[in-house]
User: Fold this.
Amino acid sequence: MDGSWWRDGVVYQVYPRSFADANGDGIGDLEGIRGKLSYLAELGVDALWISPIYPSPMADFGYDVSDYRGIDPLFGDIGTLDALIADAHALGLKVILDFVPNHSSDEHPWFRESRRSRDSAYRDWYIWRDPAPDGGPPNNWLSNFGGSAWTFDAATGQYYLHLFLDKQPDLNWRHPPLREAMYESMRFWLRRGVDGFRVDVIYHVMKDAAFRDNPPNPDFRQGVDADAHRFLPVHTADLPETQGVVAAMRDVVDEFPGRVLIGELYLPLDRLVVYYGENLSGAHLPFNFLLIGTPWDARSIGDLIKRYEAALPPGGWPNWVLGNHDKPRIASRVGAAQARVAAMLLLTLRGTPTMYYGDEIGMHDVPIPFDEVRDPFELNEPHKGLGRDPQRTPMRWFPRPGAGFTRSTPWLRIGDDVDTCNVATQADDPRSMLSLYKALLHLRRDTPALHGGDVTVLAASDAVLAYERRSASDGRVVVLNLTDAPAALPLSEPTGVVLLSTHGDEVRGELRPNEARIYRAS
Assistant:
């Protein structure tokens, strides 16, 4: 691949705790991932994105970083990562790391020194404020994990800001030495051969310099919504100054040809596309999560495709995501049968798809009893359905105890359908979910229209979405029945052959329940 490999490629997210456990402690690790690289290459993906593996107390399972230039012993060491990168590159796979710039761990040496005294040379590396006149928090900002975003430090008499856990103090991106230290941490990994970064909550890094209160959210639902939604994050997210930080990160990445910058952004469409930057100087791929919240029907999805394509800046390359470590799995959201249709949608739309580990075998959310909950979000705001453990359960490799993930007790329970939902069983079944994903991935790679062509929505009826993908050399028509009933095609059936059906055959005519097809366009 050339320097724009990320345009034609498919990204596969690995949640390292849950992918493969090589040392038998019940937690996935880098050696486990390394041992599964050939699986990923054969599957047909082009890059693996590994969620955080840095040293961490694991209050938020790696998103509380205590050293931006190391590897947590739980996962291995830098030598193991170097070997993983070398093996991946030998197989034609790229390696993307998570980068967590909004906050560190409270056990990071920077923060320990910052809180030592108000005169510390590192005091301004974090965000400290005097109490309000009544002695309470400086303003009404809330943590995304519940409660105030401010914690009082009695030793120095000030509050520090944390938009997530109190063990995740926010870094001060208005302070030049902090910025330079973070950019140099990015360079540290790029020099070791990492192919880019997925940047965690990139839209949060800048906060209002005047520390004004956020306004109330008129749509907040008490007892249902996360506590943080009581206020609109006007002064804690998506500030204009954020664009300068994104552009500077892009400059760092561009020092190393062929690398990619991906930004995590839960924003409306009109704000999402701003993160491509002026003249495409921002993120290569501002993550588009809009499919996750869009109603699962043909008209809504067809409208989203058209709106997204229209909103992209000139030259901006689209991307699509169906799920990740923070959101319920697609099979749980739309059902097992529609998850097959979703696979065809994801891998035939224009742009770069990101898959979530296990979706290729139809993994669903696994209910976790409260006494086994590990996720701090669920522990802080219980019984609201906000917990993320269900979508982080271990990958199923074989139909046996431990699912081939581990030879000991897994860190989260595996689930009750491992006999059929596993790689080994599905590999031998030509109509399995895994076989469908492999067929889609290889067809996408071999078809210019699918990995690089234009997209045109042809029709969106009550049941069926149809669109064309066309390049200079070929064309394909994709039709998807997003219902569990038979559905007439919303347009004249393409004259070309059926290249692939989610049902595993080449039947023409009326779409069967939960069926999607790819036709060769005439």
Summary: The CA atoms of residues 484 and 514 lie 5 Å apart.
